[in-house]
Amino acid sequence: MRVVIDGDLCQGQGRCFSIAPSVFGFDELGNGVVLASGELSEGELELARLAEANCPEHAVGVVE
Amino acid sequence: MTIEKTPVADFATDFDHTDPAWVADPYPIWEDLRQRCPVAHTERYGGAWFPATHAGVTQIAKDTENFTSRTVIMNDGRPDELALPSPIGVAPPITSDPPFHQIARKLILPAFSPGAINPLEPQVRALCRSLLDRLEGRDVVEASWDYARLIPPSVIRQMLGFPEADTDVFIDVVHTITESVDLPEDERIAAFEPIEEYFVAQIEDHQANPRDDLTTFLLNAEIDGQKLAVEHVFGTMILILVAGIDTTWSAVGSSLWHLAQNPSDLERLVSEPDLMPVAVEEFLRFYAPVTMARLVKHDMEYLGVPMKEYDWILLGFPAANRDPAAFADADRFVIDRAENRHVAFGLGIHRCAGSNLARLELRVALEEFIARYPRFTLADPDQVTWSQGQIRGPRRLPIRVG
Ligand code: HEM
Hints:
The complex is a heterodimer. Chain A is built from two helices and four strands. By secondary structure, chain A is of the alpha+beta class. Chain A has one domain (2-63): Alpha-Beta Plaits (2-Layer Sandwich). Chain B is 47% helix and 10% strand. Chain B has a domain at 85-309 and 345-400: CATH 1.10.630.10. The model of chain B has no long low-confidence stretch (mean pLDDT 93).
């Protein structure tokens, strides 16, 4: 499983890095970035899914 | 001058967001519109449309081809090309369209990114505590006028690096500015004169003595290698004040209004402080304070209705947040709602640039109020008054704390 942020959709709503700060961070403009590389732990995966479900722009994805 | 308006009989065909029924309680009106229309129309304001659904609001917010942001406050009279500001707009980036919008937005975003905003938490907390100290000893406190109202201007004054001694002057200035939004153009310009003088003096002081604050940041900002003109810096400050003050005041006020009437939610926040960030998102969903406007760019059939060039769109983010098609139990406040894609800060390219700051202020204002008064109730529901217009929140809110 991988997490992705679609840079065309992301508008810096800020939900992902608040909900899952170990998985997502932010850049200088406040847009979301993926921090985690490699395998996510069970807990991180759960938080990443929650971030996905809370992104108003549908920019966050947890994919195979 | 206030013109008496005819009361609205049917919001589907003659809506008016300043009608007393809408001001008092808009939520049943929106639910009714969702079932009947779902895009309401009015001949008022020279012609306007109101999509009451999440899908409709989303589609328009993201569509900068067919709609312009050049005027975002709906007012009387139908604008035309000559009366409209240029695509750059009077208050970039909120009144700008692509491609200029992006340039103006990128300029200010770094100053409002989490990296810049998170470190402000201790000073926001100290401010809230000192405002609460002033209310010490009272059994009933005016939670809107004497608490929520005073937080955003002081935070922005600190960010701008304007003198602490000017706190009261600054708050008066801010009210003149935010109230001027509804004034006719000539009165607005007259009201602005002393304000411009005050701001220009502060800006010049920063030019002479640069320091680490938002004013210096704006003075150093560049478009195409060119520093911003003083008027552009002043204009950006005005936008930040107009966009950041009444909005945040309203969000804090509505949240306290809710807690004063829902003791079980208050108890949960007192006993589970870690729930606050999740609760803040639900306060933002349920009591979203900001409705925006757009103008239709050309005649077209859109969302199944015949829109005409320069018709208004009243873009109801608060209505979208109550749409059962987008939220389970949309009309119920669920303090620990885990999935909450609310759109209180808008959608698409105009996403609220101040959302990180707004969330910080809302969370800390609530945390400190609750820490001081773990139990409180509405002192007198009849004395609660609500703002009229595109920003919704309580303006008088007597709360019994003793
Ligand atoms: C709870 C408080 C707030 C709410 C609900 C809110 C809501 C919004 C919304 C819905 C928009 C989108 C406008 C549109 O689509 O036309 C917006 C834009 C904006 N807001 Fe806020 N706002 C809040 C607080 C703030 C604060 C504290 C600031 C700054 C100090 C701020 C600065 C801005 C700016 C600069 C824009 C324009 C962004 C652009 O056009 O790119 N807001 N806000």
